[in-house]
Amino acid sequence: MKVSLHGPRGRYVKEGLIRGLLFACGLAAVVITLVTIGTFLLGSLPFFQKVSPWEFLSSLRWAPLTVPQSYGVFALIADTLVITAIALIVALPLGILSAVFLSEYAPERARRTVKPALELLAGIPTVVYGFFALRFVTPLLQGIIPEIGFWNGLSAGLVMGFMILPLVASLSEDVLYAVPRSLREAAYALGATKFEVVTRVVIPAAFSGIGAAFILAMSRAIGETMIVALAAGRTPAWPPDPTQPMMALTTTIVNIATGDHEATAFIWSALFAIGLLLFVMTLTLNVASYFIVRRFRERYE
């Protein structure tokens, strides 16, 4: 029996098709995530059969191709976190201040112009950021800090901060703009100044969204590859010194993947182990972001 899509029954059929399509899209995301986890687990299994998780996480020496071999990533984790911290020190204050300006001070015409221009930074390829850090920022820093190395974590962290700046600014501006106008008007009615309204009413009300933006930016910085591979160097440093070459976890993956190693070599299982570690780190940050939003979320009727 043929069913017309224009009658009452046809609407139900179309709704069912749309519902099924949306369910399939959601299911595909879950399946892809599970397949990714399974790939990391199976790929890293040969590695953890030879190297204990404790040695992998606690040893300071990463030397997979020398004798004796060592597969410790503690120094790599420390280098990654130091570079990420530098990026966040740049992105967080600039991003929040930019968001406050766009949300509370900028005229509507300026907001419609400045915000898209700021978001254009997110469209620049990260390899371009890496060359910019290496060929412009590093020479600039060498004029200020003569002992800084040609490859260094400071340059990579600073440029990475500008790379994640649009993420912090855009998300923070959205949550600040969503704070009900009635809260601002109530504060003004009590005699508060513009600055007091922003700092004591608007920002606290949007804290959950700002915190989530901060953690998502941190997750993005930890997983960045090209900037740290080009500008930070490929030498693990312990203790971490941002003025000298550093080696992030993502750079280690690049070294393995672009080296002269067969795909069946044991070193490739180390690649999966590091990838699994990065996956766990970013997953932990995303879960923390979810709980921060739930814990500090404000509901307005």
UniProtKB/TrEMBL annotation:
The keyword Transmembrane helix applies. One of its GO terms (molecular function) is phosphate transmembrane transporter activity. Its main location: membrane. It comes from the Bacteria. It is found in: Cell membrane; Membrane. Coiled coil: none annotated. It comes from Fraserbacteria sp. (strain RBG_16_55_9). The lineage of its organism: Bacteria, Candidatus Fraseribacteriota. Keywords: Cell membrane, Membrane, Phosphate transport, Transmembrane, Transmembrane helix, Transport. One of its GO terms (biological process) is phosphate ion transport. This is Phosphate transport system permease protein.
